[in-house]
Write the structure tokens for this entry.
Amino acid sequence: MQKIMIDLDETICSPTYLEEVNKYMKMDYQYTDIDTYFVEDIIPPLEREKFLDYFYENANVYDHAYVFPEAIEVIRDLCQVYDVYIVSAFVDKRRPKESSIMAKYKYEWILKNMPFIDPKKIILTGSKHMIMCDIKIDDKVGNLKGYGETKLLLDHMHNRKYSFEELESLGIKRVHDWRQIRDILLGSEEV
Ligand SMILES: [Mg+2]
């Protein structure tokens, strides 16, 4: 059975980081305003430290996370054919101690929303690159480098700077939604 490693944030669901930034800054930023990987990079550096204090004390961005259409249904179907692992990074190097709470939030969200995933196949880490698998699905190009013969990149504003040619040279295919992932991994679309 081929092993698949599936990222959580911005791949399966979108946690409410931006809503927390907006609440804290009293702003109304949209995802289209942000082309960096961490949404809080939109906050000026001095304010950002205070935001992180507030964030780790007060916010659970998984309470109202948005689930991408068909993500959970497709993953359930993938489990019939593949050995599926949900792999998510939780370590915030700026706040190693405080970020431990993110492991709990992520684990609880996966248990609740994907009860068909064996809890032992939930991998919360800071070192995704160490994991060997056949297929990777992620929204971050850096996480798709290394092991794997099929690498699918979920299209997002923050990864549009990578051209088709650049991705091709890394063996990465850009995909636009979970329906397309279903077609590639369970149907007939060529990788
Ligand atoms: Mg991600």
Observations:
- Residues 17-58 form one domain.
